[in-house]
Structures are given as structure tokens and as C-alpha cells.
Amino acid sequence: MAQPVSHSGAFTVAAPAPVRNTTMRELRGGLSPAEFANVIRRAAREIGEHVSCDARYIGRVEAGEIRCPNYAYERVFRHMWPDRSLEDLGFAPRSAVRRRPAARRSAPPGPTDQPPHRGLLTALPAPPQPPPPAPDEENDDVHRRTFLTGGPTALATVLGLDGPARAADPRAMPAPPPTPRKVGAADVQFVEQAVREIRLADDVHGADTLFERAGQSLRTAYVLLNEGEYSITTERRLQATAGELAISVGWLAHDSNRLGDARSFYAEALATARMADDPALEAHVFCNSAFLARDAGRPREALRAAQAGQSAARHLDSDRLLALLVMREAGAWALLRDRSAFAQQLARARILFERGESEADPEWMSFFGEAELAGLEAQCWAALGDWERATERAQQAITLQEPHFVRNRALYTAELAHDRLGCGDLVDAARHGSAAVALLDQVRSARIRGMLAGTADGLRNHGSIAEVRDFLECYQVATEAA
What we know:
Oligomer: single chain
Distance between the termini: 60 Å
Order of helices and strands: EEHHHHHHHHHHHHHHHHHHHHH
Helix content: 55-70%
């Protein structure tokens, strides 16, 4: 059988055929791919790393599609098996994976030994380069950073869609459209990984600094979808990925208090889901739309969206997804002050959640653990005015949250300050408010700042209390610095 061929400029390079990684398969033992992925994610959290490992990634590793893991995964694997090198784990040497043909040795160097999310937040965009001859994890990282930071222009260059006509005087007559480039699996993988990186960076840093760059990435994804040529299989993946990216950008808009923008992005994602006949994407859109409607003070809309999401998800075999959608419905009933309906849906959500994870759980749901469930319950009890229960669940959320997820720690701490104020405990509200403010130098989230603004307003007439005075002063300083 002929080996697959990748094209690079004027010459052709044969990509090596994948070699199954039997070592990693042996290490998995009797665990399912999803269970093994969960073990890897748990090991990553132990060292403060975050990887979006799922059953599909395990399958790619064992099939030999991932010849060498990226640096984040390498750190996790070395933590899990400290006496083994990457070669001992069945991977190819990094130097072999990163090797380039002689005609391209003058190309800029590859990624540094730096976690991908740090590169996204701190690195300037590198000049876009043509696609590498054989996609792999390290090359994906280079293109992902170009994709995330360069926007439509960068990827248009990669696709061959830019040219003199693009830079011409806008008043001139439009030139004929360029010949579309064939879009393949590697291109879709770049977009899929961009979605993962945006989610990872949001988990750590919040939305405000990411929104504009993520919006560029979304426009770039639609360059692929609208100007490329692809197979039916690639089209379905592109539609699903563009929809997921629209949801991610919508969430960043939500967390940045751009609620109108968020609603628009979710509508775009829903249209994409409907055109692609993709119930998983549709369920995700409705899940986020319900949360947005709740925060916008539209509980009836939140209720309809949550119920529509459950309808879309009913055949997806993911109890965790249904649990989250049912919690969205519970939140809507809480806002409507219907305690009976809320209690019924809360009990149902807990039953679904306790059934545990499964291979069918969507990758984007990695945030939905015990801490998030407790945080959502705290918001519901606060909406019902049951401040003691809200306090208990918010405190539990803080305790359960991994320390390196700074954004969620700030969110739950701000919720706890709000709940303690509802209890009438001004001193405790101020203390927790100060703790949340202390995290704002690491987190950029207008939604969290808005929560703290409400607590500050509630405490403003009690400046004679030392703890309250300290909170108001540090909150003022943080507000001026934002």
C-alpha cells in the first residue's frame, strides 16, 4: 500500500505510516479509553497541568497517530512514569518528529518548551508558514498559535487565499475570487485544538483578555468553511468545530458582560448545529444559552433553553451532560421562585451526576465536576433567598476546586461573599470579598467583577467596620487598575 503523501511547495514528502503504540496500550490494561483518559487528567491536576485528554486522544496515541506528545502531555507522562523516557513509552524521539526536509531548514524554529496556554497569552504571533509536510502534535502547536493570534489574515495565508487582490485599494473593482485550497483533516485539527486552548486559557485567566483574539479565530474558522473545498466528512467536522468555536466566543462574551454579543454568537452556533443536524452541538448551545438567559434576568427563556437542550441530548448517552442541563433548568425554576419544581430538578440532576462519567461525555464538559455542581447549587439557593444553604454550597465549591483554576476560585469566593452578605454577616462578607479581590490580578472576568460590585454596594454604608473598610479600599484599587 502506498504511503500517504504530503505536499510542501515544489516537492513531495512521504509521511511515515503510523506505528501502533503497544506500550501505551499495555499501560492502559483493563481500563477503558475514557477511564484511562480520566487517570491522565487526574495526574495532570496533581502537578498543576491541564490537558484535554479524552477517549479519542487515547485512541490516537495507541494507533500511532500521535508520534510524540506535546510538552504538556510529556510532563504528565513523566510524572506518571518517572523511570521511563518518551521512547520507553512507545513514542518517537522529539527530534525525529520535528525534523524538516532540507529545503525548509531555514524556516523559523518550532515552539519553545512552554505550556501552550502561556504561549497564547504572552507570545507575539509568528509569521504564518506553509503547512508542514506531516502534521504531528508539535507542528499542531505552531499552527495553533498562528491560528489563535493571527486571525483571518494568518490562516488565509496558510490556505493560499490571500494575494495581491486582498491588499488592493478597497475602492477598486473586486478581483476574481482565488482558487479555493483543499481543506483536510489536519486543518480541522488546528481549529479543534484552538477551541481547546481557548477553553484552557479561560479556565485559568478569565475571558476579558481572550475575547478579541478568540473572535478573530472564529472568523478564521469561517474562512475555512466558506472558502475552502473539502469532503463531506471534513465538512461535518468543520461545521461542528466552527459551532463549538462560536460557543466558546459566546461564553467569553458572556463572561465579559457582553451579553448581547453572547446571544448573537449562540444564535450563530445554533444555526450551524441545525444545518449540520448535530444534536451534540445543539445541546451545548442550549446549555450555554440557558445560563446566559439566567444571568440576563430572563428565567422563562432559560427554562425553555434548558428543556430544549435536554431534548437534544436525550439520545447522546451522557448522564453528565443531562445532569448539567437539568441543573440549568433547576436554576431557572429557582429564579422563578418555584421551590417545588427546583427541588425536583435538583434531585434529578444529582442522580444523573452520580452515575459518573462515560465515554460519551463531550470534551467541553471537563469543567463540570463536584466543585462546579456545588457552585451552581449555591447560585440556586441564593436565588431562592436561602442564604445559609447557599453559603454551605459555595464554601464546598471553593474547597473542592483545584487551586490552579484561579478563575473558578475567584468566582466561588465572590459568590460566597455575596451569600454571607445575604446572611447579614458583614464581616465575613467583607473578608471573602477581599479574598476574591486578591485574585483579580490573575483573572480578567467582568462577570466576577460585577458580582463583587454588588457586594461592595451592599457594604458601602458600613465602612465603620474595619474588615468592610479594608474590602472597600482594596476593591476600589482593583477597579481603578482594571
